[in-house]
């Protein structure tokens, strides 16, 4: 009986027991709350310059971002790294990547960068700049927004071009061919000239060329054409006179009289011309500066003749024809003197 009384608690003891349990429970809750409060950390997250503050009990940067549904792309910038531990007042900086288009000729490349220079974007696109290439923006320019970069590929090359040299036509006088007739004695051939140029190409299109030098690799061969000069006419007697030149001259006549020649029959040179020939019909005196001695002529109103004599008064376009007598009857005339063809 005494044992049973020991097992059954007294009402006063039950109250004490319950109170003890309550105290233990409250203390446990307070201790847990205090422990939890001690684990809460405040962090700041700055995204593209805008800052947000969060309280968290997470231990890594990755967990904080997931907790607050902040997602990153592979090109976004974040500091500290995702696996870094969180401490009180940790500052997380995120820079969102933006689109940069790089145009190279007809090709377009797109990259995403959170920051950097024009040169950084070009390198990320895998584009190698040549020393002559042109970029629409300075390579050192900082980028902070979507941008279009235009690259012009510039190249140089040397080319050799062959050019035709047209042949010329040379006209030669043929004094044995009738006037109006022509004869090709040599066919013309074009020559060839080589020119070396330095070309400047932008995106494959020529924008500038500079002549470096030239040389003739094949000279042209002229075309040679002979043209006839021999004209002709028929005299009143039906004789054909073929001539290559005609003069209009003042004509007089002379005979063997001493008054005309200044020589008497006893003179050793009496009856001889300046060229040593005996005078006869058909001999005429001329100015050798105009008509060379020995030239065959046809004198209008006189006939065929040969220039074999000279005279002190025969200068310029004057001619003195020999007649056997009565030279004075010939008088002074304006005549045409034809230089005969050979």
TrEMBL record:
Recorded GO CC terms: outer membrane
Superkingdom of the source species: Bacteria
Record-linked PANTHER family: CELL WALL-BINDING PROTEIN YOCH, RESUSCITATION-PROMOTING FACTOR RPFB
Species this protein is from: Caldicellulosiruptor obsidiansis (strain ATCC BAA-2073 / JCM 16842 / OB47)
Protein name according to UniProt: 3D domain-containing protein
Cross-referenced Gene3D superfamilies: Resuscitation-promoting factor rpfb (2.20.230.10), RlpA-like domain (2.40.40.10)
Keyword NADP attached: no
GO molecular function, one term: hydrolase activity, hydrolyzing O-glycosyl compounds
Claim: Membrane is one of the keywords in the record: no
G5 domain span: 151-231
Taxonomic lineage: Bacteria, Bacillati, Bacillota, Bacillota incertae sedis, Caldicellulosiruptorales
GO BP annotation list: peptidoglycan turnover
PROSITE patterns linked to this entry: G5
């Amino acid at each position: 009986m005494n044992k049973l009384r020991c097992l059954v608690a007294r009402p006063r003891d039950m109250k004490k027991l319950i109170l003890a349990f309550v105290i233990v429970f409250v203390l446990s809750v307070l201790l847990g709350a205090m422990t939890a409060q001690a684990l809460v950390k405040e962090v700041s997250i700055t995204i593209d310059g805008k800052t947000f503050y969060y309280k968290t009990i997470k231990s890594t940067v990755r967990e904080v971002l997931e907790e607050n549904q902040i997602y990153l792309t592979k090109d976004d910038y974040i500091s500290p790294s995702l696996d870094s531990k969180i401490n009180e007042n940790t500052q997380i900086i995120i820079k969102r990547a933006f689109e940069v288009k790089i145009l190279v000729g007809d090709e377009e490349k797109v990259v995403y960068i959170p920051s950097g220079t024009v040169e950084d974007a070009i390198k990320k696109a895998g584009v190698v700049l040549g020393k002559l290439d042109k970029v629409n923006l300075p390579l050192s320019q900082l980028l902070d927004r979507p941008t279009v970069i235009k690259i012009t590929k510039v190249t140089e090359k040397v080319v050799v071009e062959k050019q035709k040299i047209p042949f010329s036509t040379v006209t030669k006088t043929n004094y044995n061919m009738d006037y109006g007739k022509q004869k090709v004695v040599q066919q013309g051939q074009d020559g060839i000239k080589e020119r070396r140029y330095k070309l400047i190409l932008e995106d494959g299109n020529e924008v500038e060329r500079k002549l470096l030098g030239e040389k003739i690799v094949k000279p042209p061969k002229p075309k040679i054409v002979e043209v006839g000069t021999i004209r002709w006419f028929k005299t009143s007697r039906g004789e054909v006179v073929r001539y290559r030149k005609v003069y209009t001259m003042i004509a007089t006549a002379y005979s063997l009289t001493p008054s005309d020649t200044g020589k008497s029959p006893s003179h050793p040179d009496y009856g001889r011309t300046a060229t040593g020939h005996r005078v006869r019909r058909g001999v005429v005196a001329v100015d050798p500066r105009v008509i060379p001695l020995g030239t065959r002529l046809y004198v209008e109103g006189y006939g065929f003749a040969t220039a074999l004599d000279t005279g002190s008064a025969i200068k310029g376009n004057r001619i003195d024809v020999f007649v056997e007598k009565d030279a004075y009857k010939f008088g002074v005339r304006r005549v045409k003197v034809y230089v005969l063809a050979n």
